[in-house]
């Protein structure tokens, strides 16, 4: 399937809201962007569901920021998008962390949310 400008806009909208919640250290807002049954893999053992996402981001240091770049987008089906991103996580007290992030977004009842989130450390 070909990715349209509208589909890339969907990905950027969700990831802009993710970035804003990460930057503001609002773990519940980050978690709200995920499906109830989302598979989440940060840099710690994986979890399933919003509670694990909220706990992961609550454990992150205040001042954590995220800067992302969309590297690739694919439409896997009418209501499923794949995003592959480069992300720099910034800190107030240590060097930036460079990772890649793969996400799968799904649409239910007109609402897009994260169904899968997989971080890969580059160093």
Give an overview in words.
There is one protein chain. The chain contains three helices and six strands. The termini are far apart. A six-stranded mixed β-sheet has the order 2-1-6-5-4-3, covered by helices on one side. The mean pLDDT is about 95. Helices cover about 25% and strands about 45% of the residues. The chain has about 120 residues and is α+β, with helices and mostly antiparallel strands.
- Uncertain runs are none
How many DSSP helices? 3
Record field, number of beta strands: 6
Radius of gyration: 14 Å
Query: Largest sheet, described in full?
Result: 6 strands, mixed
Strand order in the largest sheet? 2-1-6-5-4-3
Topology:
Elements lengths: L4 H19 L3 H5 L2 E8 L5 E2 L1 H9 L6 E13 L2 E11 L6 E12 L2 E11 L2
Concise overview:
With 123 residues, the chain is α+β, with helices and mostly antiparallel strands. It contains 3 helices and 6 strands.
